[in-house]
Design goal:
By secondary structure, the chain is of the alpha+beta class. Helices cover 44% and strands 23% of the residues. The protein has two domains: 117 residues, Sandwich (Jelly Rolls); 80 residues, Winged helix-like DNA-binding domain superfamily/Winged helix DNA-binding domain (Arc Repressor Mutant, subunit A), CATH 1.10.10. Strands 1-8-3-6 form a four-stranded antiparallel sheet. A four-stranded antiparallel sheet has the order 2-7-4-5. Strands 9-11-10 form a three-stranded antiparallel sheet.
Length: 227
């Protein structure tokens, strides 16, 4: 169980819950830490909990029929994920890998289902979450074959800075070029060149150990329009 204060810090959705719903939610959540490079779960595994990012960085990826690894999204502070697999009661269709030491808040299925049945605020959050993810993945499918390296870096960073899916990030994130390359499926050298292009375009500013953006929509549009 976690405290009310911690829940409010790590879960934007808790702001729409009634007091008794908040108490039920926090009683059903535990925290767990994963080391750098550790798999949170493998594609095909049962991972019967709804998970929130307390800290760290996780890559969500899958493997195509041809054996190519495809990066789907990056997950950072404030992101909650896995609701689709819980609702469909199915194994995960993707790998989840911690790119650095990562701490997750794990909500058990019984608590998730209770909130689904009783909380209007929780259901409203899930509707917005599904809508945002649908738009994200449709955009990815539309542009996957057209994006050049810079566009792929922009798209990977856009997923990290998405204020609705990763509300804890803001406009700065501590992230290395190696981690950006892992999210983009590119070498560190190519990632470095792409970041310079994006910086020259005024989309972001690369600092030692981190990235600062001016506006998320600029990054998102670049990732959509590049190629």
């Amino acid at each position: 169980m976690i405290s009310r204060e911690v829940l409010e810090q790590i879960a934007a959705w808790s702001k729409d819950l009634l007091p008794e719903e908040i108490d039920r939610a926090r009683r059903g959540i535990v925290e767990r830490t994963y080391g750098k490079g550790a798999y949170v779960c493998h594609q095909g595994d049962r991972f019967d909990c709804w998970a929130g990012m307390v800290s760290g960085l996780v890559k969500l990826s899958t493997v195509s029929d041809s054996g190519k690894q495809v990066s789907l999204a990056g997950l950072a502070a404030g992101a909650w994920f896995g609701e689709g697999s819980i609702l469909k009661n199915e194994p995960r269709r993707y790998d989840l890998v911690a790119l650095r030491e990562t701490r997750l808040a794990l909500m058990d299925v019984a608590t998730f289902n209770w909130l689904l049945e009783h909380s209007v605020g929780f259901n409203r959050y899930l509707v917005h979450q599904f809508n945002e993810r649908l738009g994200q993945f449709i955009g990815q499918v539309e542009n996957d074959r057209m994006l050049d390296a810079t566009g792929r870096v922009a798209r990977a960073l856009a997923s990290i800075f998405n204020p609705r899916l990763n509300p804890g990030v803001g406009k700065h994130i501590a992230i290395t070029q190696e981690e950006i390359g892992l999210l983009s499926g590119l070498s560190r050298q190519v990632t470095n060149q792409s970041l310079k292009v994006l910086e020259n375009a005024g989309v972001l500013q690369a600092e030692r150990g981190g990235i600062v953006i001016r506006d998320w929509s600029d990054l998102q549009k670049y990732g959509t329009m590049a190629g």
